[in-house]
Amino acid sequence: MKTCRMLAATTRLVGDRAGIAAVEFALLLPVLFTLFIGSYETSYLLLTYLKLEAAAEAAADLVAQTNVSTVLAAADFTYISAAVDLVMTPLSTSGLKIAYASVTYNTGSAKIDWHYEVNSATPLTIATLPNGVNAASLGNATAGSSDSVIVVQLTYPYTSPISNYLSQSFTLYESAFNRPRYVTCVPTTMNTNSVCP
Residue 115 phi/psi, 5° resolution? Predict the structure, then answer.
């Protein structure tokens, strides 16, 4: 008799479907939460990278737009850096580092004509041009002519927007190259004494 009651209770328990949705929800909640957080983090990282790319290209483009009657001064780089900050909006730009350089080619050899750094960025040299670019591949100056390229490299300390839960942070790098539009090379008051080499 006792076995029949236990068998009947077991049969009722197995056949009872009340609360199955709660059990399924409890099993799926960690997976769904992980997918949600992962997609949020991935989209924020992608937004940051796209903003950084746009900011680097804007900075190189603004320097490359220097015309014949303009010689860049420190104040001009301050304005260009402010434009970079605006492009990065709404992201924080507190740790953003910007390195500007002009690579000039005279008689086919490359050299750094001038460089300017913001927020203690590492100065660009021929050996440390971004993206592993060979300096000789940027210019096409032949003997007796000259060519130049503006190089901008941005360094951004990425911190997760959910850093309270994920303490991972790393550094993003982006660079842009642009040829001067209206002049052979862009002179500055600081490095080239207002004249091109």
Answer: -145, 155
Classify strands 146-159 and 97-106 as parallel, antiparallel or unpaired: antiparallel
Q: What is the pLDDT of residue 140?
A: 58
Q: Can you give the pLDDT at residue 137?
A: 60
Q: Which alpha helices (H) appear in 65-145, and where do they start and end?
A: 74-88, 135-138
Identity of the residue numbered 181: R
pLDDT in tens, 141-176: 555 556 788 899 999 998 887 766 666 778 999 999
Taking the C-alpha atoms of residue 109 and residue 150, their distance in angstroms, rounded to an integer, is: 16
**24 phi and psi, to 5 degrees?**
-65, -40
CA–CA distance, 160 with 41 (Å, rounded to integer): 7
Matching residue, tokens 């001064």: 73
Closest CA to 175 of 120, 132, 121, 131: 131
Provide the 3-class DSSP secondary structure of residue 69: coil
pTM of the model: 0.78
**Rounded CA gap, 21 and 76, in Å?**
63
**Separation between Cα atoms, residue 24 and residue 36, nearest integer Å:** 18
Bridge partners (DSSP) of residue 156 are 172
pLDDT at residue 94 greater than cutoff 80: yes
Pairwise CA distance, residues 164 & 36, whole Å: 16
Which residue has tokens 């746009």? 54
What value does the mean pLDDT take over residues 96-109?
Answer: 82
Percent of the chain with pLDDT over 70: 78
